[in-house]
Structures are given as C-alpha cells and as structure tokens.
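User:
I study polymers; will you set down one protein's sequence and backbone structure tokens?

Assistant:
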Amino acid sequence: MPRLFASPRGLAITLLLFSAIPILVAASELYQSLTGTLPPDAQKYTTVPVTHFLHALGGVLFGVLGPIQFAGVLRNRFGRLHRITGRVFVASGALLSLGALRLLWQFPDASTWVLVTARLLAGVAVGATLILAVRAIRHRDVAMHRAWMIRAYAIGMGSATVSLLMFPIYIVTGAPIHGYAADLVFVASWAINIGLAEWVIGRGSPARMARPKVAAE
C-alpha cells in the first residue's frame, strides 16, 4: 500500500476508485439539474438552479481531473496538457468551493450547526489551498504546488470518505444514522482525508517533486 500511494500512477488510480461514488453522485445531480428531474428531497435547489448546476459541474470535473493531475506521466510527457487541465482543475475547484458556500448561505437550516460549520470551513479551505497551489507554481515551487493541490483534492472529496464510513455502519445497524452522529462521521471524513493527504505528501520524494522546473501555470 505505501508503494502504491507513493507511485504517481498508483496514486491516480487509487484516487479515481476512491472518489467514484461522489463523482457519480455529482454527475447524477448534473443530469437531474439539466433535465429538471431532481428528486423530492432536492427540489429546494430549483430556487438556485445555476448555483446547483455549477456546483455539480465543479464536483465532476474536480473529482476526475484531480487524480489525472497527480499522474507523473501527464506532467512529464505532456507538460502543456498538464498545464491546461491544471487550470480547468483550479476553475472546477473554485466552482465547487463557491457553489458549496452559496448553497450553505441559501439553506443554512438544512443541517445542524456542527455540519454547517464543517462545510463552511471545508468550502473556504478548498478555495484557499487552490490559491496557494497557484501561487506556488507561479514561483516555480513544484513540490509546494503539488502538496497544496493534493490538500485541495483531499478536502474537496471529503464525501468519498463519508460513503466509506457510512456503509459499514448501515450494514451493522441496518439503518442510516442521523443527527449529530451523522455529523461526526462527516467531520471525521474530512479529518481522515487531511491526514491521508499529509501522509501522501510526506512520502513524496522531494527530488522527484522538485524536477523539472516548469513554466508558470
């Protein structure tokens, strides 16, 4: 497992599999938003259709492009394509972050204060880490750029860990959890993702991440 995460290709494949559920959920929301087929529990989003659509679009692009950006083959062999997809990744992360904050502002009573606070911090953190990632690459600090990109992806894909944590609980109890217990699972998922991101960053080879110097993205 450590070797798998340390390998750029292994990391990319693992992240794609890990993020499959939230990517599919975002894709489903994107389709429902376009076709006007939102389920009853999501009808509230019809009051902010543009925000909901852009948030879902950002989630799909952010989830798919993140692992691709971390694959060394794209960065080393197709530098121009890496820079283009990197810009799209940052833009999609901005849509994800701003969309989440806008929906949180629009529907503050949809969750408890614990989850509202956690989502607020996560939304701000995604935007902040992406800004720091762009700043680092403009200074040609590839290692720091990669680290902030990984952190942004880890926070943005927090719902992937939620799915992995919720499913075993559902299997054992036979019913989904609600209230503050569910909120704690959400908070724990972001904490786990951040911890894993720091572990992956720490295992990266400084020499490998520092080469080559690239043009500003």
The chain has eleven helices and no strands. The chain has a mean pLDDT of 82. The two ends are 31 Å apart (CA to CA). The CA atoms of residues 94 and 127 lie 6 Å apart.
